[in-house]
Amino acid sequence: MTRFLIAAGIVAGVAFAAPAVPATAQTKPTIAIIVKDTTSAYWQTVLAGARKAGQDLGVNVTELGAKSESDVSGQIGILEKAVASNPAAIVIAPAQFAPLGKPIDEAAKKVKIIGIDSAADTKAWTSFLATDDAQAGRMAADALANAMRRTYADTEGDVAIITAAPVAASPDQSVTGFKEQVAKKYRALNVLPDKVADAQAATGLTVMKDLVNADRDLRGVFVSNVIIAEGASQVVYNKESGDRINYVVFGSDDKLVKSLQGGTIDALIVKDPFRMGYDAVKTALAASKGENVPATIDTGANVITKANMNSARSQELLNPKID
Fold first, then answer.
1. What single string gives the DSSP state of each residue in 8-74?
2. How do strand 14-15 and strand 10-11 relate by DSSP bridges?
3. What's the rounded Cα separation, in Å, for the pair 219 and 160?
4. CATH superfamily of 27-131+272-300
5. Residues 96-124: pLDDT tens digits?
6. Cα-flanking dihedrals φ and ψ of residue 309, to 5°?
7. Torsion angles phi and psi, residue 138, rounded to 5
8. Chain centre distance of CA 128
9. Which alpha helices (H) appear in 215-298, and where do they start and end?
10. Where along the chain do the CATH 3.40.50.2300 domains lie?
11. How many Å apart are CA 160 and CA 306, to the nearest integer?
């Protein structure tokens, strides 16, 4: 009789629970996240957000990335290996638009694929998370107009756009949004033809020198590439007219933050890479469980000026914790 009572979980009339399975024995889902470059501060912040989501949601996050943003073949190889490891889902930031299209199509036949930050030539995304670059461009136009109004008490004169040369990529939507906003709200501004440069600080400096030498009415510049902006923003005044040049930049790094503090740059339009990494893992987990997830998610952009750069939110964006 005793053995029957024990088998039923009762000894001497006292019920007891079956031993709990140790948490370590429970299998966690694994989500692989593939970024463009594991060494840059931006992508390290994306990975930090992904790690935090993994901790909060009970997910093993595998961090992967090529040696540089230009290593397209390396990223394709990493994607193929990630698929072979049978994760619950994969998050990827495509290094280039066209070359990653077919590899993502093939990967999506076997696992849920979540895209982040930049587009690819594919329709196989389960969900795509990125900053709405066109909206960021509209925010840049407003920020530049506000800066020019403070400097000149009006929004008149010529403004230039400097952007990086596209490399098999879709058009720069921040430039599109900037132009749309100027046409809609600031018709007294004359937007000059785009200046396209390679992503080098020295090139940005050369382009700006050429601009101010050719146009005495140049008063404002929108730069959609961080490295180009480092060079371009060294030209503070239009030597033909003596006018101060107002700068707004899409993106940030330590050098540009110092220029913002010093007043050379008027505003930075910054993304939220920590949120992008966090929400990507959260979305990937939901998708792996068969839950409905949004087709697109805007991870937002923020305008940071000298006036608000010391706020808690601005410091969170400018100096994210990536440990």
1. TTEETTEE-PPPPPPGGGSPPPEEEEEES-TTSHHHHHHHHHHHHHHHHHT-EEEEEE-SSTT-HHH
2. antiparallel
3. 8
4. Response regulator (3.40.50.2300)
5. 889 999 999 999 999 999 999 999 999 99
6. -70, -20
7. -65, -40
8. 12
9. 226-232, 254-262, 273-288
10. 27-131+272-300, 133-271
11. 22
Nearest alpha carbon to residue 50 among 64, 37, 39: 64
At residue 17's C-alpha, the angle toward residues 16 and 22, to 5°, is: 140
The whole-angstrom separation of Cα 139 and Cα 174 is: 9
Task: Please state whether beta strands 296-298 and 218-223 pair in parallel, antiparallel, or not at all (unpaired).
Answer: unpaired
Say if strands 89-92 and 30-35 run parallel, antiparallel, or are unpaired: parallel
- Domain 133-271 has what CATH class? alpha beta
The whole-model pTM stands at 0.82
pLDDT, tens digit (0-9, with 9 covering 90-100), for 202-259? 999 999 999 999 999 999 999 999 999 999 999 999 887 889 999 999 999 999 999 9
Among all chains, which residue has been given the structure tokens 């933050």?
Answer: 257
Distances (CA, A) of 123 to 74, 77, 188, 231: 22, 20, 40, 37
For residue 160, report the phi and psi dihedrals to the nearest 5 degrees.
-115, 155
The residues with which 115 forms a beta bridge, in sequence order, are: 92, 128
Instruction: Find, among 250, 277, 252, the residue nearest to 35 by Cα.
Output: 277
Rounded (5°) CA angle 226-276-91: 110
Residue 120: phi, psi to the nearest 5?
-140, 165
Find the helix packing angle between 133-152 and 173-185, rounded to 10°: 50
Question: Tens of pLDDT along 205-218?
Answer: 999 999 999 999 99
